[in-house]
Structures are given as C-alpha cells and as structure tokens.
Design goal:
The complex is a heterotrimer of chains A (about 350), B (about 325) and C (about 500). Chain B is mainly α and about 325 residues long. Chain B is built from 13 helices and no strands. Chain B has helices spanning about 1-10, 10-40, 45-65, 65-90, 95-120, 145-150, 155-170, 175-185, 185-190, 195-220, 235-245, 250-270, 280-295. In chain B, helix 3 (about 45-65) runs parallel beside helix 5 (about 95-120). In chain C, helix 6 (about 175-190) links the parallel strand 7 (about 160-165) and strand 8. Chain C starts with a strand and ends in a 6-residue tail after the last helix. The chains are: A mainly alpha (about 350), B mainly alpha (about 325), C alpha/beta (about 500). Chains in contact: A-B, A-C, B-C.
Chain lengths: ~350, ~325, ~500
C-alpha cells in the first residue's frame, strides 16, 4: 500500500458528507418545487428558523439535547460491539423513572431533587438494557431484534402507566402530573427555555472523549468491540465488559429521557418523542462514533428539525423532508470507507477492457 | 365474560381479520427472509414497506387502477432496495446503519411527497383499492370458508408466496445458492456461485416484496395513505423471520401470531372489555421475546450481516 | 503423451508483494506433477490463478494447447480444472449432495432433483471407495471424510485436471495412505493431478514430475526418477543445512505447570481432550506433535483460559485451578502465542503500539490512575520494534498494514518481553517465510535458555524435532507417549501420530 497522503483523506472526509447533504437538499428542493414553492425561499426559512436569531438557536439546541445524548448512548454500546437499537425504550423508561421521583414533593434542595430524578432515570434505563445486554454478552443472542422489540414494550408500558397509576388526576389525557418545581431542570439563562441539559450533554460528550482517548477502561472497551476474541485473549472478561457497556448505554439513554421531561415539558406525556433511538444511531454513525463529533452531528439534526418546523409554518412545506437530508448525510458517511474499493474495482474493469 | 371473549376469538370474523392483519407481516417476511438467508441483514423492510404504501396509493390514485399502484410500489421500493444492496454488498457498509438511514429516508420522502402532492391536511383523499374476492366453492366451507377465501388479492398472494418461498429455498438451485451465500460465502464463491450477485438480487427481491406488503397497507381496504402508515410493521416482519428460525413456514406462523393479537386487541375494544388497550398490544412483543429465549440463538445464517468480497486479495 | 496444462511466464503481483514471477509449468496428461516448495513459496497463489480465484498479472495459460482466460471459478470448472483447497470449501450447513452440486452450471433446470444427485453421489462414492453418505451434513463429518467430499465434488464436475493443495496436512499417515490410493486411482482413469506440497516423502511416493518453487520463482523441473530427496530439499530451501540453532546448556529444572486429567468438550459435545496429564518444567521446550485436528487448539486454549475445560485441573504457581480465566492464566505468568494471530493475537484495526500493551496496559509503566501513559507506550513499542526487527513505518502503524511475518513478530515481542514463566506457542511459524521461521524458532530456544518453560504445539514435525527437549505426540486428545530428545526415532513418532501408544510398541504390540 502506498503511503497515505493525509491531506487527500481529510479532503474526502469533508467532501462526501457535503455531497450527501447537497444531494438531499436538491432532492428536497425538487419536492418543494412540486408544491409550487420556491425552494430557495423555503431553504431561507429553514436556515433562519434553525439559526437565524437567538430564539431559533435556542429551539435548535433544545432539539439537539435528547438526540445528542441518545447518540452518545449508542456510541457507548457500539464501542463494545453491541448495537443498541433500544435507545428509544430506555429513553422512555428513564423518563418514567424521573417522573416517579419528580412528581413527588420531597423535602430536599432543588439540586438534590434533580439529581435524584436523574439517578432514577439512570437506574431505569440501565435496568431496561440489562436483559438484552445479558443475552448478547452471555448467550450470544442477536441484540438488534431484542432491543427493537423492547422498544415497543417500553412505549406501551409507559402509556399503560400514564393511563393508570401515573395519570394526572382528573384528566382524560394520557399524561402525568406536572413535576414539582424542585425537580425541574433550571434554565441556563433566566427567562429562556434552554435548560441545563445542554451542559450535561456537552460534559458527557467530553467525558466519553476522554474515556476512549486516554483511559485504560476506554482502551479495554474498544478492544472488545474491535475483536472480542483478542480481547478475551488479553485477559479480559469480555462478557462482563459488554454487559457493563450495554447497561451504561441504557443509563445514558434513560438520562436523556429524564432530561427531556424535566427540561422541556415538565411532565411525562404519552408518545412525547418518536424515533429518538434510530436518530441516535444515525447521529452516532454520522459522527463516526466520535463523541466530540457527535455534538456537531446532533446539532445538525436538531437544527434541521427545528428549522423545518419554522419553514413549515412560513411556507406550508412539510417539515418531514429534512429526514431526507439527514438520511443522505448518514448514508454518505457510512459508505465512505467503501469508496476506495469501488474505485479500485472500476479501475480494474477499465484495465481489463483495455487489455 | 370469558365466554364472550372466547366466542369472539373463535369466530369467522375474527379468523378473517387475523389473516388480513397478518398479511403485511407475511408478505414482508417472505421478502425479507430471502435477503437474510443470502447473508444481508435487511432491517430496511420498514422503509421499503412505507415507500411501497405511498407509491401504491399514488399509482392507484393517478391511474385509477390499483394494479398499477402495486407496480409503482414495487418499482419505488426496489429503488430503496438497490441503495441497500449497493451500500451493503458493493461498499461493505454496516448493514444495520444503512437500513436505519433508509428508514429515515423513506419516512422523509413519503411524508414530504404526500404533503407536496395532496396538501398537509390531506386527511381524506382516497384512491381506488382492491376489493375482496370471494373464491367460488372454497368460500362455502363452513367457518373457514369466508375467513380464508373471502379476502383481498394480497392475502391470496401471501397464500401462494409462502409455499413458493419454501420451494425456492429447498428445492431449487437458486435457493441452494442463496443458502450457501448466507452460510459460507467464500466456499460458495469458490464453487462458482456469484455470491455478490446472489445477494444483490436477493435484496432487490426482498425490497420488491416489501413494496407489495406496503401496498397491502394502503390500497386494500382503507384505500388511503397516512404518514408513517407502516408504523413499525417492517420491524415486526424482521422479528418474525428470526422467531421463525429463518424458515418460511416458521416466519409465517410468527406473522399469524402478530396478526391474531392485533385482531384480539380490536375485538376486546369493540366488546368493551375493561382491559387497557396496551396490554394486548404488548403481548406479541413480550411473547416474541420469550419465544426467542426458548428457541435459542443458534439459527441465524453463519455469515448473516457479514460483507463478502470475491475480489479480496488477502 | 500430451501437455494438458501449460503455464507461460505467469506473474502474480499483489499490492505489497510479488507472489509469482515468470513461472513456467507444464502438466502431462495422466501424470502426477508435484509443485514443491516451502510455505510462502507461491505454490497456492499460482494454482489459484489456474482455478480462477485470482487472475495473473501477466502471462498465459494454455489448456490442450489453446490459450485460455480464466476469470472466475466457473470458467476454470468449464475447462476441466478442479482444485481441492487446503481449507475446505464446504458449506457445513448443507448436505454432502447439496455441496456437490453447489454452483454447478451444467444443470439447466431450475429445480434440483436432489434424489438423483444423491444417487449419483452414492455411485461415485462406491466407485472410488469413499464410503460417503450423500444425505449427511458436512458439519457432522470428520476431516478425512470432508476431504473426500471435496475430491468427489471435483470428480462430479468431470474435472480432468485435479489440484490437491497440501492434501495430507490434516490427515494421519494412514489416512494419507488411503488418499494416495485415491490419487493413483484417479491417474488410472486418465485424470491429471497437480500435487501442491512441501513434503518430500509425498513427492517421492506419488509424483512423476516435480517443479520446485522458491520465493515465487521456478527453481527447476525434474522427473522423479532422476532426482532424490536430498537434491529436492536443496532446491527447495536454497542451501544445504536447514536450520542450525544455538542451544544453551540444560539448566536445573523446576516444575512450572502441572496438568492432571484434563478433559475438554467442544461446543458440539465432542470430547477433544481426554484425561490428559503432563508436567512442564522451567528451561525446557516440550513439543507437542501430531496431525492437525487432534485437539491441539483445544489443549492450548484450555491451558490459557481461552476455553473452559470440563474435567481435571491445571496447577500454576502452586495454585490449582478447576476453572481458569485468561486473566488467571496471564497473571500467573503464562504467555500465549495463539494459532490464529489475526483473529486472536492481534487487533488488526489498532496500532502496533496499542497491540504491544494489549494485556499489559495496567502495568505502572503504561498507565497510572486508569489513564494511559502514551509516551512510554510509544517508547516501549519503538524499543521492541528495534530488538525484534519488526518492519513497520512507525509504532503508530496499523497492524493490518504489516506483513504476516511482522505481525507474528509483534506477538512474539509482546509475549516474550513480558518475561513469562511459561510460554505456550501454537503453530508459531505457520505461513512465515524461512527467515522469519528461523527467527521465531531461535527466540523459542533463547526463552528456554533463559529458564522459561516452553510448550510448543505444532503440526510441523520438523519444527518440533529441531527445537524440543521432550516430544509428546497428541492423538485424539491423548498423549501417545512422551519421548526425550536424545532417543528420538522418527518411525516411532510416526506410529504414535497414527494412534499407537509408546507402551504398546514396547510391549511388541502393533496396532497397525
């Protein structure tokens, strides 16, 4: 193999996602034009709605937080070789745990109450990841199908609780009572909606970055994910480590659920978020499993979604087309490692045709 | 109360509705199983179904002919299948993540297209759909007759596809190639099986059938399109394949189970039995997990989800 | 007599190496032509070009005096070429009959009439005395039978040229003898056979012609009548003396590892190691010889904690284990050079320096308070690269980018630099070139001289005889006996490899 030209590699790394996003924008533009709306006009509102002013930026960040934290959850298990499709279920269970504690008036300081809610979410989310983690690590089951099925169970279980024991008294809606004020996440700037969940997300991303980059634990977790056999050979109890990683992954996703209910709605509402587990996967992979990059990737997702809502209000164009852009971005990143192979193959074909 | 319940469950109407609920699962599973057996993990069934549902609706709406709708559904979902196949087989990308991207893409493009063409508040636009076809003579069989043979064309297609898939796998050369590609692609390739081609066509085929499964959601009965109409049915079909140990018959059994529980749930609600609606809905998922635990983990094809390149010089 | 297959100036270049250079070769109809050469000489690569797995970079292939292009395996089959690979190309989940017709182009019909195929397979099996049940699943067949399925596959495709790649590597001497009969039968039926091998005895027993390859080039082609083993050995290796190792004086011995009644059962419930007992002492190399598949892998994995054992005990450093994890094995001073370096011994996606601390990351030198000490990790790797002559662009180079020999040196450096009490090496020179092989063997001897207890498990009898102080022969999970270096008898070892116990031989009882 030729010595790698570092410059050209970086170039490709930027170019391809850019091409993917552009393709998404063009495809989206065509659909917008089909509605008789000028795509540039729509995209202007999209951009303005995403980052145009302080309010829109804050809304974008609010959407970024749950997506980003679930993305980190996906990274955590993926590094150990487990595909956690169950982020959504763990998210819901975490929210349930936080709601149990958060709707209860407790004679403790606000910070303590908030922490207690988060701990409850971590425990609930982690416990919900225990079964798939155990089955994968110890029994060799396919974690994808199990976590996927558990998502449905979690969603239905949450709505069952919200229609029964956890339902706000005197309402027909499937929702819990409001959190007591001590259990709400405080705002970063007084009077603004942006809550401290953003701080938790950023710190967590940094922590994971340090974990994988500088610590022995991160080294060991990555070893399991890269080559389970070699990891065991090196004296590792891979089963323990995989189970541990899955539980932490579930805990992180659970925490995301808690942060969302404590920071945004102030109560648990049936089906209050949808598809967050899959979005987390998309973000984790868009970030190439790099925790710091996942901040950007999550913001990209969050800003697009927020901007799209504004755009829908202003132009009548459905906000859902931003999914196309997101999907194209992810596809372009994950297919990148395969591009040299295709180049080589085409070159070989050309050579053969000439011969 | 129990009697009322049992009476509901073992009625012709219940049987008929269970079968029709199960049909999208059966169809998608019969497509998906071909891809899975060839070694390509296809979690994109969900997005392919969703795309199929919209394009079936569109095809039928614009031409007035639901058969054309099925064709457009097949073409559209095959395009997604092509992306999945190219990414997973030619580029060797992660098959789960590719599928996740495809599902997000499908959600985006179907919603956006539907809203663009029919308006954001297009709640009540209907397209011509398939009506039930009663099969003479067979329909006259007591209890089972109308349940089995008073159904729409998709149900009959499912009846045909299940034994066909079984024969394909176990009695034909193509089936042998597919199984070998999923188990030990290197050996298959050495023996002259064009593994990449087999896998490619398997994925494309699975997407086409998933498109038909999607059509069965939109133009067989309700004759409408609703955003995210597939609502996870592709994922369930995927679970059915695994629960059925990658065997067409087993997968069909699993799909019937899901169809039945959906039927039970609606009956319970209709009868006003005081059980929270979530419980019967939760039941099939929990049952599937329990059954997976009992069945064990050792049935997936050996090279399931593992990319293979015949020109690897290593 | 006519030339059925001719290769003219075949060159096969890979991105990193040239595997074959200007190779000329010709096979006469109805003959056995041996392709002789050391591991890595380019024999298999050359034949892979013939059977369509690879395409040559340049050069031409003629079949029956006609130039042909072989772009894929099915074209090779169409030209009547069939290859029995060293690693069987059988799908374990399919039946014998299904494997036989897999990929067959001849059958135009869409449906498979499996009953017809089963009947045909049974007939062929009868004709060649294979004793195969067409309905049996490959995963249930022993290795020797699987090989017959491979040969049957080739015959079923009406191959006129049959290539056997190291066909006896996995067979006992008796099974090999049966295989030789099969080959003789094939030639009688007008088939032509190419025998890829590095075993001189096989060449002398079977071949009509011999072509010797070294470093990807043809050294020469001779007919068997006009040559002898000594000359062939010289051609193959390029010098007279194979290996000459410096061994230190024997040290005082102390017990390092004691194994008692070890029993290992594999995942399919088959007993792979049966009530095995032995002791390993400091300053010695105990060589475990035997044909592949007699429990070598299971033995090494049980001793290193890679697999659970189901009976018996292992005593290490005065501690007796009924169960042992890899960590317990490692912390008790056991180093392990595994059989499968790419899947077990290394993490291919990681850098060289990180692979060097795979198990030792916790040591003070490399980390403190749970944080890796990057500087000393790099320094450690650089030092080992120098002392073990590992060729890599830098300590940061990914292992995947290294050659096989250098990969093995990384493992060797890591496992030896740790200063182990016990070193368990499994097939440590498999796939290495001569230089690297010699280096690895000398390192094992140096370790012994330092007082390490070395257990060398190898199917290369030469290797064992060169370096071991004591030789045990493993057969079906049991030791047939343990011999001292001073009183070696190759004939005796051969019998033991075929399942005759040492005691039985002494008692004058001959099982064979």
């Amino acid at each position: 193999m030729k010595p790698k030209n570092k410059g050209s590699i970086d170039y490709k790394r930027i170019l391809l996602p850019f091409a993917g996003i552009s393709a998404g924008l063009i495809l989206g533009g065509i659909i917008i034009a089909m509605q008789g709306v000028n795509p540039f006009y729509a995209y202007y509102y999209l951009l303005y709605g995403a980052i145009g002013n302080k309010q829109s930026l804050i809304s974008s960040l609010l959407k970024t937080i749950p997506l980003g934290i679930v993305g980190l959850a996906v990274i955590f298990s993926y590094k150990a070789g487990i595909f956690n499709i169950g982020g959504e279920g763990q998210f819901y269970l975490g929210a349930v745990g936080a709601t149990l504690v958060g709707t209860m008036p407790l004679p403790i300081p606000a910070l303590m109450h908030v922490l207690l809610c988060i701990v409850a979410a971590i425990v609930f989310g982690g416990l919900f990841a225990l079964l798939p983690g155990y089955l994968k690590a110890y029994k060799g089951f396919n974690e994808i199908v199990i976590t996927m099925l558990l998502n449905y169970v979690a969603l239905l279980f949450t709505s069952l609780l919200l229609q029964g024991p956890m339902q706000e008294p005197g309402t027909f809606f499937n929702r819990s009572s409001l959190f007591v004020p001590t259990a709400l996440l405080p705002a970063v700037f007084p009077g603004q909606r942006l809550h401290w969940g953003i701080g938790i997300f950023l710190v967590l991303a940094l922590l994971l970055h340090v974990l994988y980059r500088y610590t022995t634990l991160g080294f060991r977790i990555e070893n399991v994910g890269l080559n389970r056999r070699a990891s065991r050979y090196s004296g590792e109890n891979t089963k323990h480590l995989m189970l541990f990683s899955m539980i932490i992954s579930g805990s992180i996703a659970g925490m995301a659920g808690a942060i969302e209910v404590m920071g945004v709605n102030g109560r648990l509402v049936e089906n209050f978020i949808s598809g967050v587990g899959y979005d987390g996967i998309a973000i984790a992979l868009l970030a190439n499993l790099n925790p710091l990059m996942s901040i950007l990737a999550a913001f990209f997702f969050g800003a697009l979604r927020n901007g799209a809502s504004s755009m829908q209000i202003a132009t009548g164009v459905s906000s859902s087309f931003v999914y196309i852009i997101q999907a194209m971005a992810v596809l372009s990143v994950i297919t990148m490692p395969g591009i040299p192979r295709i180049m080589k193959k085409m070159k070989a074909r050309r050579v053969k045709n000439h011969a | 109360m129990l009697n009322t319940f049992l009476g509901l469950v073992f009625s012709t109407a219940f049987l008929a509705s269970s079968i029709s609920y199960a049909t999208p699962f059966v169809l998608a599973a019969m497509g998906g199983i071909v891809s899975e057996r060839s070694g390509v993990l296809n979690l994109g069934l969900e997005g392919m179904m969703l795309t199929g549902a919209l394009f079936a609706f569109m095809g039928s709406y614009y031409t007035g002919n639901p058969a054309v709708g099925v064709l457009t559904a097949i073409v559209a979902s095959m395009l997604l299948g092509f992306i999945h196949a190219y990414s997973c087989i030619e580029l060797g990308s992660n098959q789960v993540v590719t599928a996740v991207a495809i599902n997000i893409f499908a959600l985006g493009i179907t919603s956006a297209l539907f809203n663009a063409l029919f308006g954001i508040s297009a709640g009540r636009v209907t397209a011509p759909g398939f009506a039930s076809i009663r099969i003479p003579l067979l329909e006259k069989i007591p209890v089972l007759g109308t349940a089995l043979f008073g159904q729409n064309v998709f149900v009959y297609l499912a009846y045909i596809l299940v034994p066909l898939t079984y024969v394909l796998f176990f009695k034909t050369k193509i089936g042998l190639n597919i199984r070998a590609s999923g188990e030990f692609p290197k050996a298959a390739n050495t023996m002259g099986v064009p593994v990449e081609k087999v896998r490619f066509y398997s994925v494309i085929y699975s997407s086409a059938i998933a498109g038909i499964a999607g059509a069965s959601l939109s133009i067989a009965g309700i004759n409408m399109f609703i955003e995210n109409i597939s609502a996870g049915r592709g994922f369930i079909a995927f679970a059915c394949i695994i629960l059925g140990k990658f065997n067409p018959i087993g997968a069909t059994m699993a799909a019937l189970l899901f169809g039945m529980t959906e039927g039970i749930q609606l009956r319970i609600q209709a009868a006003g039995i005081p059980v929270p609606y979530q419980l019967p809905l939760m039941f099939p998922y929990i049952l599937t997990i329990v059954m997976l635990l009992l069945v064990g983990s050792k049935f997936s094809p050996q090279s399931w989800g593992v990319p293979f390149f015949s020109d690897d010089d290593q | 007599m006519s030339e059925i297959l001719v290769l003219k100036n075949i060159t096969k270049a890979f991105p990193k190496v040239i595997a074959n250079q200007d190779v000329n070769f010709s096979l006469q109809k109805g003959q056995v032509h041996a392709l002789l050469g050391e591991n890595g000489a380019g024999k298999t690569t050359l034949m892979n070009c013939v059977c369509g797995l690879y395409q040559q970079t340049s050069g031409e292939i003629f079949i029956n005096n006609q130039a042909v292009r072989i772009d894929n395996c099915s074209q090779a089959v169409a030209h009547g070429i069939g290859m029995v690979h060293q690693h069987f190309m059988l799908v374990p989940e399919l039946s014998v009959a299904e494997n036989v017709i897999l990929g067959l182009k001849r059958e135009k019909d869409f449906f498979i009439k499996i009953e017809d195929v089963e009947r045909e397979v049974a007939e062929l099996s009868e004709k060649y005395h294979f004793g195969l049940n067409p309905k049996a699943f490959i995963k249930d067949l022993p290795v020797g039978m699987q090989q017959r399925v491979e040969i049957l596959k080739v015959i079923y495709r009406q191959a006129s040229i049959i290539i056997l790649d190291e066909a006896t590597a996995v067979l006992t001497p008796q099974e090999s003898e049966e295989l030789f009969h099969i080959v003789e039968n094939l030639v009688k039926q007008e088939k032509s056979v190419i025998l890829i091998t590095h075993k001189l005895s096989e060449v002398m027993r079977l071949a009509d012609q011999v072509t010797v390859l070294r470093d990807g080039k043809v050294v020469g082609t001779v007919s068997k009548e006009k040559t002898n083993e000594r000359e062939l050995a010289k051609m193959m290796v390029g010098r007279d003396v194979l290996f000459d190792f410096k061994r230190g004086k024997e040290l005082e011995k102390s017990l390092k590892m004691n194994v008692e009644n070890l029993t290992v059962i594999d995942t399919r419930g088959i007993e792979k190691i049966h009530q095995l007992s032995f002791s390993l002492y400091s300053g010695e190399i105990l060589g475990v010889a035997g044909v592949d598949g007699n429990g070598q892998l299971e033995l090494s994995e049980a001793l290193t904690g890679m697999t659970t054992y189901h009976g018996g005990s292992i005593t290490l450093a005065d501690k007796t284990y009924k169960h042992m994890s890899t960590k317990e094995s490692y912390r008790n001073g056991v180093s392990h050079i595994p059989q499968d370096r790419q899947h077990t011994g290394l993490i291919m996606e990681r850098s060289l320096e990180k692979n060097m601390i795979l198990a030792d990351y916790w040591k003070k030198e490399f980390s403190s308070y749970g944080f890796l000490n990057q500087k000393s990790i790099t320094k450690h790797a650089a030092t080992l690269m120098q002392s073990f002559d590992i060729k890599a662009s830098s300590p940061l180079a990914r292992i995947r980018e290294l050659s096989g020999g250098n990969q093995q040196k990384v493992i060797l450096a890591r496992e030896i630099s740790r200063g182990p009490d016990i070193l368990i090496a499994v097939q440590p020179t498999r796939g290495l070139d001569i230089g690297a092989t010699e280096f690895v063997r000398q390192q094992l001897i140096d370790e012994r001289d330092k007082g390490t207890a070395v257990l060398l498990i190898s199917t290369e009898l030469d290797e064992i005889m060169q370096v071991a102080d004591r030789i045990a022969v493993l057969y079906k999970g049991e030791f047939m006996g343990i011999l001292d270096r001073d009183c070696l008898d190759v004939h005796e070892i051969g019998l033991m490899m075929a399942g005759v116990r040492k005691k039985e031989m002494e008692g004058g009882y001959d099982e064979a």
